[in-house]
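Support case: user asked for a sample of complex input and structure output to validate their parser. Sending the pair below.
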Amino acid sequence: MSVPPGQADSADFIPCAHDYQVSCGNCRLNAICLPLALESEDIDQLDRIIQRSKPLQKSQHLYRQADEFESVYAVRSGALKAYRTTDDGREQVTGFYFPGEILGFDGIGNNAHASSAKALETSAICEIPFSSLQKLSSLMPNLQRHFFQLMSREITEDQQLITLLSKNSADERVAALMLSISTRNARRKLSATQFRLPMSRVDIGNYLGLTVETVSRVFSRMQKLSILRVDNKEIEILDPAGLRHMANLSH
Amino acid sequence: MSVPPGQADSADFIPCAHDYQVSCGNCRLNAICLPLALESEDIDQLDRIIQRSKPLQKSQHLYRQADEFESVYAVRSGALKAYRTTDDGREQVTGFYFPGEILGFDGIGNNAHASSAKALETSAICEIPFSSLQKLSSLMPNLQRHFFQLMSREITEDQQLITLLSKNSADERVAALMLSISTRNARRKLSATQFRLPMSRVDIGNYLGLTVETVSRVFSRMQKLSILRVDNKEIEILDPAGLRHMANLSH
DNA sequence: CGTTCCATTGAGATGTGTCAATTCAAGTGG
DNA sequence: CCACTTGAATTGACACATCTCAATGGAACG
């Protein structure tokens, strides 16, 4: 399954997102994905278990609910959504994943994925086989702790979403999501004020427990208040303070 | 901090919940808490790091949000709620914890508890210092995997709650909670149809994203339909199938 | 036997959902 | 390159589930 090294990039060229043969050691996302004090030989070991052979086209699945769990996945480029299908066939979007973020942890518990993951746009993925990761974690305490931390943060984020759904108005929910995306963009050294949403209004509404119409109305309202400029999926945050105020959470 | 062995129980007496010096090896909850193929000497090692010196009175805190994270905790008897306090001072109950269940995982991510945990009634707790657990996990692959699984299941459960909050009506939410408690009771060999709720209506409403009044009305409605008998905190499920139907989820 | 907290019930207000129509954007085939 | 189709987003009018406010009832506790 390994892919032959592509045409040689010039040496000083920063590896672009589509060069999916880049190793963790010189991946520009490693500050997000692996903020670890690992020896370079440790990184080599990790590199060796990671598979980078999975560029995904828009709307293709990375895994599906109830698939056997084998790996967790780091997003290298693009964006994905994770969603659960309920017994009566409805869908619930449980998260959006951007470059540097890791998904698939919900599959460990029962050896089967508890959600499906679908590409929102063309996405490059690093696959991390979990059994290898477990072995490596036993040998590298830092790595073990790192993955405990990643899972713990996923729990914390889910709990934030629970709070959002349980306590906040439509305005607050949408504002909070815009702020979240903005923050995560900044972490990747991208603009915190201008970006293109990779997901549809339906996905946003589904994620936030709102209908499409309500999401749309909130965007219109925000635009009228000059908090956001909205042009279909292109978003510009005109008034970050106003947006934070609307989100009603000062984090 | 260690407590002297209590008055000797007669040898054939099943250790009761208040005998908090029982070891994991003969704890009647270990099928829930530690369903592991561990050598008895492994269990001994685990026993040695676990501290059982924390009986908690009703409304006392086990830990508070932003406290330094040191341990995760297994409930031995009683019940607790976990809740987050938002920036603007409101509370969100994120979970209820019953005997055999483990809480505190959300603190690993940032070395500080992301929620508070409070006893809903007198509760006995096993404290599991996380640094010891990490070391032990490196040596015992089964144990490492077990804790990855526990955290993964917490993620899955949070995502179920997200779905519930996002997609389900008040009736469905309350019904789902009653079913969850019933199932967890059954796992502990207690009645699946009769139990006493340890939490208040306020807590239930808070957890489910509803007001107290709505929770109360749902209970009244369920009683009118002969699905439940409700006498303050005493619950009897009269029509389990009807309850499942009302919850609108067949799991 | 008050006092206090918790739970229940009712009446009315409101935010968001539902239904429906329109516009806009993207892709397809003639 | 232009019609045509299709899906996504917006906007409006109305309905309804849940919230809010308020009063009452009941259990627990000193």
